[in-house]
Amino acid sequence: MTAKRIIPCLDVKDGRVVKGVNFVNLTDAGNPACVAEAYQKAGADEIVFLDITASVRGAETVAHTVSAVAERLSIPLSVGGGIRTESDATAILRAGADKVSVNTAAIRDPSLINRLADKFGRQCVVVAIDAKKQGERYRVYSQGGRREEELDALEWAKEAEMRGAGEILLTSIDRDGTNKGYECELTRAVSASAKIPVIVSGGAGNMSHFAQAFTFAQADAALAASVFHYHKIDIGELKKYLRDNGVCVRI
Amino acid sequence: MNNAKGKTAVIDYGAGNLHSVMCALRRAGADAFVAESPSELCDCGGIILPGVGAFGYAMRSLRDSGFDIAIKGAAKRGVPLLGICLGMQILFSESEESPGEEGLNILPGKVTLLKAEGLKTPHMGWTDIFDCGGRLLQGVNSGEFMYFVHSFGVHSEGCRAAAAQYGEIFDAAAERGNVFATQFHPEKSGESGAKILRNFMRICEEENA
After folding, report:
1. I need a surface site. Which of A79, A199, A250, B121 has the fewest CB within 10 A?
2. Alpha helices (H) along chain A
3. Which fold has domain A5-244?
4. CATH superfamily of the domain spanning B8-208
5. Using one digit for the tens of pLDDT, what is the confidence trace for B68-109?
6. A195 → chain B, closest CA residue
7. Does residue B3 carry a pLDDT above 80?
8. CB-CB: which of B19, B147, B149 is closest to A96?
9. pLDDT in tens, B25-47
C-alpha cells in the first residue's frame, strides 16, 4: 500500500522560520534545518518549505537555506515561493530540493509547467493552487491570495496536470488559518478528476480533519503548519490515530 | 582520480541531482566522490549508479561517456555496485520505456510499464516492501516503507531481493553477487533507507578488506 503523507510546512523568511515554532529541545527554533530535522524525527513524510521572501530577493539567495535543510533530511523536500523561471528552479533543485512548487508564475505563463516537467521530470513539479469559494465554484487567487484570477480551480488543476504537473498542492484561502478543517468538497472534486497526487492544505485543526481529508476528500497528502508548530498535534500520535481509523500511513 | 582508491564512486552522467545521494552517503559515514569520467572507476571501492529521467537518455549518456564499459568491467571484477531507481532499471537488458535501446545487461529480467490501472502514475510516495532478503536489505523488515518515484517496474529473473505492489507486484530490490539495486530511493527513505546505505558501505568495506 502507498501511505498517505503528512507534510509539515515551514514558512521561511530571510533564512529564518517564521510563524513561531514551539519545539522543546530545539537549539534554534528559527533555524529551518533544525526544525525540518525535528519534524523528520517526529515522523513527517515530507517537508514543504515555503520561502516568503523569494519574490523580492530571487531564488538564488534561497538556495543556500535549501542546501542547509537538504543536508540534514532523508525524506523528500519540496520548495516553493518566488520560483518564476527554469533557472530559479534549477538553483533550488541543485541545492538539494526534490520538488519545486510554482503558483503565480505558472498562472502568468502556464508553459512554465511544461518546461519544468520536460527539463526535470514531472515528479519534480508541484503546481500550488490557492482557491476561494465563490457561490458553487472555486476561484483561483495568485500572489499569496492577494489577487483574484479569471480561473476556476478545478479547471486550472486539470490544465496543470495536462501540462506536466506531478502534484497539485491545493490550499483553501477560506480555511487557511481557521483550524476549522480542510476544504473537503473542492479537494474531493480535484482528487476525483486528477491522475496525479493531491496535497490538501489550509484549515487543519484536529486529528479528525486529517482523517476526513484522506477518506472523504481522497487527498493523497495533507499539509499543515500551525497545528504542528504549536504542538496541537503530534505527528506520531496523528499517524497512530489515522492507522486506527483505517488510513494507511508510514509508522 | 588517483585518490579514488577504495572510495565509493557516485556516477554523474548528467541524469540529475546527486546532492541527496551524496548527503545521504555522508550521513551513512561513506567516503564518496562524484565520478565524472570512467577512468575514476579504476580503483574505487564501490559504485553507486543513481538516476532519474528516461532509460534511453541515461543509456546514451553512459555510452557517450564510456561509463557503460567501465561499469560492466567493475561489476565483473566484483566491485560492489548499487543501482538506484532508474539506475536499477538500466542494469537490465532493456525497457519498455525506450524500445530498442540496450541496457547494461548486468542483471537478467525485464523492465515494463507498471500495470496500475485506476491508480495514479507515476507511482510516487511511500510504499511498503515485502519478501525482503539478501545482504543489502539485512535488518530491513517486510512492512517498512520506502520512497518510490517511477512509472516502470522491474521483473527480474531470480534476483529479486524485495517486492512491492502498486497495482502489480514488481521488484523493489534486486541482488546477485555484488550487484545490488533498489527501485526506491534509499537516500529519501528515512531511517529504513539509511540502513540500506550503511549495509552497502559495509559490503564495500568487506569486499575491499
Report:
1. B121
2. 32-42, 54-57, 59-72, 86-94, 104-108, 111-120, 153-163, 184-193, 207-214, 226-229, 235-244
3. TIM Barrel (3.20.20)
4. Class I glutamine amidotransferase (GATase) domain (3.40.50.880)
5. 999 999 999 999 999 999 999 999 999 999 999 999 999 999
6. B120
7. no
8. B19
9. 999 999 999 999 999 999 999 99
C-alpha cell at A112: 512554465
Give the active site residue among B44, B85, B132, B159: B85
- pTM equals 0.92
Question: What values do phi and psi take at B122, rounded to 5?
Answer: -65, 160
Q: Do B17 and A195 touch (CB under 8 A)?
A: no
> Which residue type, as a one-letter code, is found at position A169?
L
Domain positions in chain A: 5-244
State the Cα–Cα distance between residues A161 and B119, nearest whole angstrom: 15
CA distances from A45 to A73, A75, B190 (A): 11, 6, 9
Looking at the DSSP bridge assignments, the partners of residue A198 are A168
CA atoms within 13 A on the CB side of B114: 26
- The chain A residue lying nearest B26, using CA atoms, is A71
Among the partner-chain residues B19, B120, B145, the one whose CB lies closest to the CB of A197 is: B120
